[in-house]
Amino acid sequence: MPLLLWLLRGLARCPLRLLHALGTGAGWAAYVLSPSYRRRLDANAALAGVDTTDRRRAVAAAGQMSLETPRLWLRPHDAPIADPVRWEGAGLVDEALAAGRGLVLLTPHMGSFEVCAQAYAERFGARQPITVLYRPARQAALRELQERARARPHLHTAPATLAGVRLLMRALKRGETIGLLPDQVPPDGMGVWAPFFGQPAYTMTLAARLVRQSGAAVLAIWGERLPRGGGFVVRLSALPVPLASPDALPAGAEDAVLADAIAINRSMEAVIRTLPSQYLWGYHRYKQPRQGEAPGAGAQPVNTPQ
Asked: Which residues of the chain, if any, have pLDDT below 70?
């Protein structure tokens, strides 16, 4: 682990343009050397109808994301993001914060999603901090690095556990902001089987449940990686497929949960289609959760914790 930390610190000092050039090579190396990763990336991209050009760009983008992460994680905690960040749609955050009822930001595994929370904390965190949900690394040393690197002024983290869910709800009740990746496969019992690009995918119910229980506003956010190390654009929009009003939800509780999951999946699909060349198509989106049920007819939901 000391050698890995030494390497990461060295990468953190490299300019973004060099990291992206190295990352392009790393992305293609992973694609060529790992048949299982290559098959998964190609199959997932094919499901979404991604053309060959964007698929090839996505191979490089996955490596670029890996190599830019140390630069975002390991800079001094009181230092701003080292590369230019431009905002589009920041007025939507201003409006949501002014309402004072909390804000839920949803981003898929696309572009530089790591930069979104840090950029929010820099621009809006003094008004309302942000708490982001994350899945802790299994290795203790890497988990410690992950927690230390992501926790910054006005930026807090919550593990993907029931304790972490409580932290998110408390933040919303204080009128603060939370961030989640709703295309992340949740633990068994915390999701439903819902279509994602036409194929059943185990989908978290947490995002919609937090919105409904807290009355918070909800926006889509994503960080586009600019070419030649030019920095990032953080984009925001209303959910392309809004959650249904309570009166329009199906009568059954399980059907209502499924309807919310479908709406969020369709919103993430719409966001991804704006930038398919930077989505992590190699992410194991359609995997079974641990001890999960196989997707049955109609993608039936499983129980979610209260």
From this structure: 1, 137, 139-143, 291-306
CB atoms within 10 A of CB 35: 9
Can you read off the two tokens belonging to residue 149?
A: 């690197």
Beta partners for residue 110, in sequence order: 279
pTM confidence score: 0.91
Tokens of 55: 């698929």
Q: How many CA atoms lie within 13 A of 259 on its CB side?
A: 15
Total Cβ atoms within 10 A of residue 245: 7
Sheet with 217-225, side-by-side order of all strands? 85-88, 232-238, 217-225, 103-106, 177-180, 130-134, 155-159
- 139-166 burial string, b = 16+ CB within 10 Å, else e? eeeeeebbeebbebebbbbbebeeebbe
Q: Answer whether 112's CB lies under 8 Å from 232's CB.
A: yes
Q: Are 73 and 115 in contact (CB under 8 A)?
A: no
